[in-house]
Amino acid sequence: MRSSRSSRKPFKKPVMVRSRVENIASAQRLLDQISQNPEVLADLAHTHVISARQFDRETSLQIIRLAAWFETKPFLPHTPLGGKILINAFYEPSTRTRCSFASAWMRLGGQMMFVDNSTSTGLAKGESLHDIMEMFNNYGDVLVLRSNHAESVYEMMSRARIPIINAGNGEEEHPTQALTDLYTILQWRPDLLQTNLPPEQQIHVGVIGTPSRMRSIRSLLLLLSNLVTSIRQVTVFSPHEEAFAPQQLEELESVGLKLQVTSDIESVLPDLDVIYINSIIWKETRHEQLLPDFQLSSNSPLKTGSIVLHPLARGEELDASLDDSAHNWYFTQARCAVFVRMALLLCIMNRINQVTELIS
Question: Is the pLDDT of residue 122 over 80?
Answer without folding.
Answer: no
